[in-house]
């Protein structure tokens, strides 16, 4: 009996020692990659569905490791979290996102920049200080900064997260709920938290054309957004057919490979020039 309980603990201890060593080297590698530019940002346009005009960009992180090649963000965000480096990464993304926003503003006028913020960072007030510091260091207009809250289902304490988001909103930023519809408790989060935008997860958008249920969910989320006074963004729009369905459903904003792929800031500026001509 004692053996049964003892053995797994011993294994767990050994594993955590290895984890510790792995995490220390991972921490060092992440920090080095941020400093060297191996970790960098690309930007994906958000467009007005009715006119095709550029009305925002989302900053997405990329890691091109010389030894391991391109590391997918989903995987690398998880690694960052395990290595205790999320807030470090987020500060970097916020800073470079705001700097890019200023460059974009010079070229195209005031186009909001969205940065992804992991819900786990809403457990502590330090995120408020971070955003305030980045805004003052870069001089970026807070009204042009959108904070996309990812993985909302991981919020442990909605009251606390709500208070933190209210403080972020008071700085002038807009708060967006990412991946709406997937993960538990998204309606509860929508009710409690001060969102001004919600992004319908691409799971629903990609199936709109083939699955009446997905179509029904999308149309109803669009109604929901209207009723709550929240802008709805359709993400993962891969083709013209989907874009047309969204237009017919009066979806205000869309994003996806079928409109523009994530790219360098220079390419976004070219995209804006083309979009404003047509
Ligand atoms: P997300 O916030 O839902 O970002 C949208 C993802 O969908 C991006 O993947 C984007 O490249 C991809 N995408 C856009 N249009 C299409 C499309 O038409 N079809 C398909 N199949 N995919 C499309 P990416 O860049 O791989 O990022 C994955 C996730 O990693 C993001 O999902 C976000 O949750 C997270 N992430 C990325 N950058 C950051 C960051 O700086 N901080 C944090 N916390 N998370 C980030
Ligand atoms: Ca996002
Ligand atoms: Ca999303
Ligand atoms: Ca996602």
UniProtKB/TrEMBL annotation:
This is EAL domain-containing protein. Residues 23-276 form the EAL domain. Signal peptide: none annotated.
């Amino acid at each position: 009996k004692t053996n049964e309980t003892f053995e797994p603990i011993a294994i767990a201890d050994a594993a955590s020692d290895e984890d510790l060593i792995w995490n220390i080297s991972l921490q060092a590698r992440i920090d080095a990659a941020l400093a060297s530019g191996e970790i960098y940002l690309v930007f994906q346009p958000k467009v007005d569905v009715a006119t095709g005009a550029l009305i925002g960009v989302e900053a997405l992180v990329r890691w091109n490791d010389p030894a391991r090649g391109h590391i997918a963000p989903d995987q690398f965000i998880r690694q960052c979290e395990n290595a205790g480096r999320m807030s470090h990464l987020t500060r970097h993304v916020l800073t470079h996102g705001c700097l890019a926003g200023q460059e974009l503003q010079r070229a195209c006028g005031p186009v909001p920049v969205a940065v992804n913020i992991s819900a786990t960072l809403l457990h502590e007030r330090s995120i408020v200080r971070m955003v305030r510091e980045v805004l003052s260091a870069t001089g970026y207009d807070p009204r042009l900064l959108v904070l996309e809250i990812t993985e909302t289902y991981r919020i442990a304490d909605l009251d606390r997260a709500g208070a933190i988001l209210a403080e972020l909103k008071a700085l002038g930023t807009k708060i967006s709920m990412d991946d709406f519809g997937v993960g538990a408790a998204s309606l509860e989060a929508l009710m409690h938290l001060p969102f001004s935008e919600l992004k319908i997860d691409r799971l629903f958008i990609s199936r709109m054309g083939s699955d009446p249920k997905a179509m029904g969910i999308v149309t109803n989320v669009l109604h929901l957004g209207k009723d709550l006074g929240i802008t709805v963004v359709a993400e993962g729009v891969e083709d013209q057919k989907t874009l047309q369905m969204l237009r017919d459903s009066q979806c205000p904003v869309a994003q996806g490979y079928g409109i523009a792929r994530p790219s360098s800031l220079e390419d976004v500026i070219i995209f804006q020039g083309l979009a404003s001509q047509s």
